[in-house]
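Reading a protein record of the kind used here takes only a little practice. Think of the row as the fold of the chain written in a discrete alphabet. A record is reproduced here so that you can trace the correspondence yourselves:
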Amino acid sequence: MFQTKQNKRIKYIFAFSILVFIFVIIKVFYIQVIEYDKLNTLANELWSRNLTVQADRGKILDRNGKVIVDNLTTVGLYLVPAQITNKEEVSKKLSEILGVSYEEMYKHVSKKTSVERVHPEGRNLDYSIAEKIEALNYDGVYLLKESKRNYLYDGLLSHVIGYTGIDNQGLSGLELKYDKILTGKNGSIKYYSDGKGKRLDLSEIYDSPTPGKDLYLTIDLDVQLSLENALSNAFTKYNAEGAIGIVMKAKTGEILAMSSFPSFDPEHYQNYSEEIINRNLAIWSNFEPGSTFKIVTLASAINEGVVNVFEDTYNDTGSIKVEGATLHCWRLKGHGLQTYVQVAENSCNPGFVTLGMKLGKEKLFKYITELGFGKKTGIDLNGEATGILFNMDKVGPVELATTAFGQGISVTAIQQVTAVSAIVNGGNLYTPYIVSQVGEDKNSPKLKKSGIITNETAELVRYTLESVVANGSGRSAYIENYRVGGKTGTAQKVGDNGQYMSGNYVLSFIGFMPANDPEYVIYIALDHPTGVTQYGGVASAPIAKQVLEDIISIYDLKEDKTGLPKVYRWDDTFYYTIPDIIGKTKKEAKSLINTMYAGINIEFVGDGDKVIDSLPRSGDRVKQNSTIKIMLN
């Protein structure tokens, strides 16, 4: 009996031992296999330290792959205080090299932390300083790669691109809007230390950084350089309060160039006021458009069939009365009897008032809203304004009249460029955009609305606006042998008290080329320029012409002599067409040119008597007082 009980007890103990042994095996298996990664990571975190290796931000490039914003590789100073044995000596040497106080550096060296990033004194060090620190060969003193933004063209496109802070984070513009995409993934150097932070004699692990994605813009760097150069010169020359320029592709909404002044250098943004660095005037500034808005009224009236621009006439006496209010033309005595093509050429306010009255407020404001005024265009930039329109229930005859010639409402430059593009391209309103590709993902044009006006209306508007440049207020934008259309604007500014400011204007010009089939739309505005006649045709149109001439050169646009000829005035620069003189005698050629063009100089090359060639050649156009070289046999 006693033996049986003892055997049972032994069996129980043995069974229990077997269960304990199985449990231990399962637990060991669980720890070593299932939980290994987790526990190993936790262990590594206890005795490993990471030193950050900063990743490069993605580059910003133009539509042709030209780099606008790149990165500079610099060096950052990192300290591991537990590994620094002689803190006083290290603090003294580093303070001397970096040019900071001993006390400040000692705070870094003795700080109770595993890794101390010396900020800001040890950020973005150049290599000469880094070499001096490296030569000290102190334990616990590390120099690691950092990345700094490199704006290759200083202030070029600054309001669009924006700027980054000392930690390479985007703070404004595209740098902010696409910060997550541009920001890469930092790498690290991992080393191992004991509980007191002393470095262990184990191999380091290097985790390389991953750069951010590149950003490709619709901007053409060459066009942008042209626009900024022309706009900067005018801004300085006229001591203007501000200046805006935009060049857009009429049939896609792609922005080829955008600029606003005053500008700033993104690398030294701290030297500028927030008012300058955070306001992209091309999309933010609201102002009365003035006569450039007459394009909208003209297109609306033609599309509604309320005017025949060739046959209908208006007799301008210098003013027009609307419900007791007298609205004046810029020409005090008026322009007399005009067709509506001439009304546009002369930028006659009373003539456009009559178009507004013929349309009525419902129809005119229908086109205004369909063309995108009163709301954001949706351009892929931060800070866009909506503009200001009259509430329809507050639009009476006077408000309708002033709206018809661009007064009493507020718009942005990007709204005007977008709307005029839609008018001249045949009625297709596109969303303007400035980013064409993010990494490998490409953006495409976005059509917001089609059929706003008919192709026939667009053709008549284009003809009328080409006539404005050839014969009217936009004459300063005329380019020989190229077809340019456009409209000038002179808008009086409104002060803080709601009253119009005396002698303070926004002078503008909006144009397109080629006039018969527009590819490029340009807008130029100068805010309160001084020392110049206060008309858009005098101040802004020549700037547009300069940029359009550069576009002709950049894209190698071919001449087109089928456009409207310019009717020259006494103050214009005359152009002459070289006659056919090949085969004529020296005397005949000289007589022919002198008879036709008294303002052309002749230089004969060779001692023969027969003309074999000339430079410029027969049929070419040359400016007054130019010299023709005539080659003799």
About this structure: The chain has a mean pLDDT of 87. The first helix runs from residue 2 to 34. The chain has four domains: 2-34, 50-215, 221-264+280-554, 575-632.
